[in-house]
Amino acid sequence: MNKHRILMKLVTSFLFALQTTLLVSQTTISGTVFDEKTNEPLEGVSVYFDGSTFGVVTNPKGYFELPVDEKINSALVISFLGYSDLVVPNPYDKGNWKIYLKEKAIVLEGVTLKADPFTRAEKLRAFKAQFLGNSANGRSCKIINEDAIWLSYDVTSNKLLAFSDEPIIIRNKLLGYENRFKLIDFFVEYNRQTLSSLSTKETYYAGTSFFIDKQKDKRLYRKRRNATYQGSVLHLMRTIRDEDFDNQKFRFFKGGFKIKPESYINVIKQENNTKVILPDFKMPILFKNRRSDLTKRGDYLIIDGYGNFSPPNNLYFNGDMGMQRIGDMLPLDFKPEK
């Protein structure tokens, strides 16, 4: 059985000037966005918390206010077509942001590719399978702007590469969301020169996402979203954070034997977040006979009130959770119905 490795990371790069003054009102983030060159305010800039439905656009004066119910351990993304994105890891430490976006020129260079053995249709099909996923949710997704995706196959490394200069607009039919995913990096590495999923060695993607709720039939989508949430990474992180092991139906194992997770997982409550120290051994987890393996890659995790964990590279998933893709994503602020 092939093991798929999924690494989700947030890439933060400050490529333009950022000036701030101190002014924070509870959990409302505010500021003004300008063109770096002209100093003119920019209208219609998207400002959102990565992986959530919390987002606004700037008004004609470039101003925005973004309220949230409670602090979310997720980066604030400022995005405008034709400009370099700004990713703010901690938008709470400063307020009334004055943000200057820089116009960008896209230059693809430094990568020399030999003759590409696959057609665009073949590469796009493989990309969607690995990016959206092969679950029912993933198969129901439709990419609205496929033409914005640049695809190539490097025969030297047997890697499928993807890039997009604009957010990839994904309509999830089963879950009723539109996910605007800004793809920062993507590749699929194969064991040989192929696009077959059976020969996948590693899948990697990085980016930021903003969810728009498109539901029409609340009852229908509520049921589907709840089913997707059950056994997801988000569900697991909230279970660990709350130490609600008895009620959430996750079963933890060590060496083939069922264990009490509270005896091996150290949960430390902090003022706004929860610090979690996982055991050093690979921990199999079962949820309704769906197996996932958790491997610790760092000293600890920080889980916020929404279930978002960081640093993302400190935890490695195999099995069911490792196979979950963009099509199975729920917003961090999703709350299951009981």
Automatic annotation (TrEMBL):
It comes from Spongiivirga citrea. This is Carboxypeptidase-like regulatory domain-containing protein. It comes from the Bacteria. Pfam families: CarbopepD_reg_2 (PF13715). Residues 1-24 form the signal peptide. Keywords: Signal. Gene3D superfamilies: Carboxypeptidase-like, regulatory domain (2.60.40.1120).
